[in-house]
Design a protein that fits this description.
Distance between the termini: 17 Å
Strand content: 15-25%
Oligomer: single chain
Radius of gyration: 14 Å
Low-confidence stretches: none
Strand order of the largest sheet: 2-1-3-6-5-4
Number of helices: 5
Order of helices and strands: EHEHEHEHEEH
Structural class: alpha/beta
Helix content: 40-55%
Largest sheet: 6 strands, mixed
Length: about 160
């Protein structure tokens, strides 16, 4: 690939866990994302756990955008009545990365079968920054972070900054 497609961009990450039952001590999925990012030499600039509330999720994302160019929101992407991460975050996107959700569901299918269609994983760009919304299970955050986000984040941010 032409080197102009991937620049050496400093990545400052934010992790937001959406959950009404977890806190920072019991948030295994948020800790897994942080572990994987740190292992890849990506610094964590912001970390928060917020309940399933559109305004609180949106507020956390905007706060994270002040210090980070890669925001990973985990949890609240399913179909239950209180899952509202997508409703909170997708209006923020200036451009959507449709292939992210499609690829996540394809890879998830290999692990969990047709249950993968219940995931509303999504991603988009806001002011040259990438925002990813992924399910909150530890397996899902490992899959999304390790197999999709980490391999492509510099590529995504390179294009987002042009």
């Amino acid at each position: 690939m032409d080197s102009s497609h991937i620049q050496d961009i400093e990545i400052k990450a934010a992790v937001i866990t959406v959950s009404t039952t977890r806190d920072k001590d019991s948030d295994l999925s948020g800790k897994k994302i942080i572990e994987l990012l740190t292992k890849d030499n990506i610094g964590i600039a912001f970390y928060e756990v917020v309940p399933d509330d559109i305004n609180l999720i949106k507020g956390a994302v905007f706060e994270a955008l002040e210090s980070s160019n890669c925001i990973i929101v985990n949890g609240g992407t399913g179909l239950t009545h209180d899952d509202c991460t997508i409703e909170a975050v997708s209006p923020i996107f200036k451009k959507t990365i449709d292939g992210f959700g499609e690829l996540f569901r394809l890879k998830s299918y290999g692990e969990i079968g047709t249950s993968s269609l219940l995931s509303r994983a999504a991603a988009g760009i806001y002011k040259e920054k990438a925002i990813f919304c992924i399910p909150g299970s530890t397996g899902a955050v490992r899959l999304a972070t390790e197999e999709i986000i980490l391999p492509e984040i510099r590529h995504i941010l390179t294009h987002a900054s042009k």
